[in-house]
Structures are given as C-alpha cells and as structure tokens.
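Much of our argument rests on the idea that a fold can be written as discrete symbols. Part of our work consisted of pairing the sequence of a single chain with a tokenised description of its backbone. We regard such an encoding as a compact summary of how the chain folds. The amino acid sequence and the backbone structure tokens for this protein are reproduced below.
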Amino acid sequence: MKISSNSPITFSVWTNKSYYLVEYLTMILIALGVVGITAGSHSIGFPFYKLNPMHWVIYITILLRKPSISSIIVLAIALPLTSNLLTGHPIVIKSMIMGFELALYGLIFISLIKYFKLAPIFAYLVSQFSGRIAYYGLKYTLIKAELIDGFLVSTSIILQICIFVVLGIVLLLFDKKQLIRKLKY
C-alpha cells in the first residue's frame, strides 16, 4: 500500500469519505477528552472553564494535527455541545454561540496562515478579536431578545486578557520552533 501525501495515516485505498470520517471522529474524541477534564473539575469545585480550555483546544489542535477546516468546524461544534450533554453547562443556545465562535477562530486562523501567508501571531490576534466580537455580539442580541439571561461578560475581563496573552505566548513559542510555519494546507 502506498501512503498518501494528504496525511500520514491515510492510504491510497482509503476514500476521502473514510479520511474525513476518521478525522471527524478524532475531533469528537478530542472534544470528549477536554470536556471530561472540565466535567471532572466541576465535581471538585475548580472553575476550569474560566481558563477557556475550548479556545486552547482549537489552536493547539490546528498546530499539532493540521486538520482540515471542516474538521475544525466539527471540533468547534462538538466541544460546547458535548460539554452541555455531560455537564449541562453551557445551555444549548449558548453552546451554539460558542460553537460558532470557536469555528470562527479556526476558520480565520487557518485561512490567514494558508491563503494570506500571515504570521501566525497576527492570525491569532485577528481570529481572537473577530471571534470575540461575534460571540459578544450574538450574546448581546440574545440577552436583549430575552432568549438567554445573565451578564454579557461573565468571566472577568482581566482573566480573559491574561489567558489571551498566555495563549499568544504559547503560539509564539510554537512559531519560534518553526512548527507553525510548517503547516501545509
């Protein structure tokens, strides 16, 4: 059997459907693992979700697995919906907003690197700001329409900025090791 150039795990006898099925299942398994950690932290009273683990998963998965955009979209939707099914948090409508936000992060990050040859740190900044604007815009609209209740910003802005900076530093470290620049889409 000849190994295909698309991925180290695909063989020429595999169809594109088989490749994407395996890739999608991998994304769902990643989501289950992250959500399992988050669910476990709920049981001991540690608010792990405030560290934005789903954001980390999207970027780190892109860096380490180099998935297709459709696979990142599957992962982005699976993360909050799986969390909802296992823990009841976030509520379904907020899970959908978060899925959209996470998918936007991945779509913009991959596209800016692949098509616009933007440096990964700049792709990260643009994707984060775009995703945050979309998330808070949708959340504000749903609060005003009384479809969800609560505060527009529920995690402290200072904590969000700290996590944003730390994740940016992690991406810079990956880039320093030339891992990001070797992304071949």
